[in-house]
Amino acid sequence: MFNLFYRYRDPLVVLLLFVLPLAAYLSDPHSVRNHNFVDRASATAATPMQWLTVAVVDTLTRSWRRYVALAGAAEENERLRAEVAALKEELGELKEDRLENERLHLLVELKERAPNVPMIAARVISTAPTPLFRALRINKGSRHGVQVGSAVVVHDGVVGRVAALSAFSSDVMLIVDTNSSIDVLVQRTRARARVRGEGGDAGMSLVSEHLARTADVEPGDVLVTSGTGETFPKGLAVGTVLALTRGAFGLYQHARAEPSVDFSRLEEVMVIPLGFPKDAGFAAGDLLAPTATDGEATPP
Amino acid sequence: MKTAAWVGIGFVAMAVWSAVGSRAGATHLFPDAVAITVAFVALRREPIPTAAAALALGYLAGRQALAPVGAHEATLVLCAVGVYMISGRLAGSGALFFGVVAGATQIAYHGTLFLLSYAAQGNAGFTSLATALLLPGALVTGLVAVLSYPVMMRIERRLMPEVHEELSW
Asked: What is the pLDDT of residues B98-148, one digit of tens each?
């Protein structure tokens, strides 16, 4: 009997290991009992491992989601960068528009201050290609009523006069060119003089000619157009006296003046054709109001 | 005792995978650590240790699944013995063979469990899902078995080092 069992030990034990649980199951296939000691022990042993596993999985999941979120943030960052660039471009355009609007407003104001003086608005389209001459080109020519000798002005004062003309553009000689000459008055004392361009690269300044030695002129005095001749109406600002030089003898004194106009920032100008009414003119000092630039508040 | 170590390893693997499955939301497609362990033991142990290990792992798996007592145990013992008997005739080896055996073990395990439950209770829970995921689950189990085979072999060599006896004339 024992030998028989020993001979079939393996099949019998295996069969027993199969039959016993099967019988337990079949006896009550619906039972879901509470944990016994062994179950609790196994659950207690499994819990820290599962807690650790879940913690690791959660950490990895969060890291992954953060990574994905960062990847999304990078894409969003790119999109926002593009948007910011577009907005900057738009802002720049708006800023340009605003500045242009301010400049045009000044020109309109200039026009309003001398309503009986005909004016043609023009846009600067180029400057002189060589540094030896101070000139610029505007986009209005003979077809628009511009003539040789027409005055070119801005709100700040005199720019120059048209020296050459074509159908759709004009070349303007600036008053700082050495070939330019213009009759002026010392605004404060009404002393007469004539100024021409000094021609120096550094200064872009004016020098006076025929300023009487006895004339009451001081540094800071404003020079305005005298209104003589047919080119410039009376009262347009030309420049401000910087320094005076009197020789030991002679009829004249020499004044050095700074132009009222910043030629490097010209974009729009007004052309005053020849033949404007002789009684037309700008009130003294009208064109000397400080110009607000770049939207900054003008100090009082 | 050395087979008991595999029960412990299988228990740890089952606990870890079930924890991972709780976060993945697709538990049924996770590899069956119990099937892998039972298949490995069945390929390397005698029938009684194999059946005992299957019984123990079935018990632990059943408890965690809150299954009726005996369902998992009987099913796993049957599968383990079946693997033992069939693999002896096939005489295969290697990681790939182990993967195929593990996958087949899972199919047999889950399929038999389903049939047993159906026979005993007249129905089985989550039938559609279980049958739909039977083959994909077996594939995942087989793949993981192939990947984990070297590690399991290393553990096995630690548990049962080969003894080289000196020849005596």
From this structure: 999 999 999 999 888 888 888 887 766 566 666 777 888 889 999 999 999
Q: Is the dihedral of CA B132, B136, B137, B142 positive or negative?
A: positive
- Note the pTM of the prediction, 2 decimals: 0.51
Contact B71 A29 (CB under 8 A): yes
How far apart (Å, rounded) are the C-alpha atoms in residues A203 and A144?
Answer: 34
The CA distance from A217 to A252, in Å, is 12
Per the structure block, which two tokens stand in for A208? 């006076």
> Token digits for A284?
């003294």
Which of B69, B84, B118, B121 to substitute to test the interface with A, most A CBs within 10 Å?
B69
Q: CB distance from A40 to chain B under 8 Å? A: no
- Minimal Cα–Cα distance from A1 to chain B, Å? 20
B163 has a pLDDT exceeding 50 = yes
- Give residue-wise pLDDT tens across range A246-282: 877 888 888 888 888 887 777 788 898 887 776 666 6
Name the interface residues of B facing A (CB cutoff 8 Å): 11-12, 15-16, 18-20, 22-23, 46-48, 51-52, 54-55, 58-60, 63-64, 66-71, 73-74, 77-78, 81, 116-117, 120-121
d(CA A217, CA B150): 106
Give CA–CA dist A24/A18, Å, rounded.
10
A64: number of Cβ within 10 Å: 10
Residues of A in contact with B48 (CB under 8 A): 9-10, 13-14, 17
- Per the DSSP assignment, residues forming a β-bridge with A186 are A223
Flag whether pLDDT at A158 surpasses 70.
Answer: yes
Q: DSSP character for A260?
A: S
Dist CA B19 CA B87 (whole Å): 31
Angle, in degrees to the nearest 10, between helices B71-90 and B33-44: 50
Contacts of A44 in chain B (CB under 8 A): none
Q: Given CB atoms, is A34 within the 8 Å cutoff of chain B?
A: no
Contact B10, B33 (CB under 8 A): yes
CB-based contact (8 Å) between A42 and chain B? yes
Rounded-to-integer distance, Cα B132 and Cα B145, Å: 21
Between the two ends of chain A, the Cα-to-Cα distance in Å is: 125
Residue A266 backbone class (left: φ over 0; alpha: ψ -120 to 50; beta: rest): beta
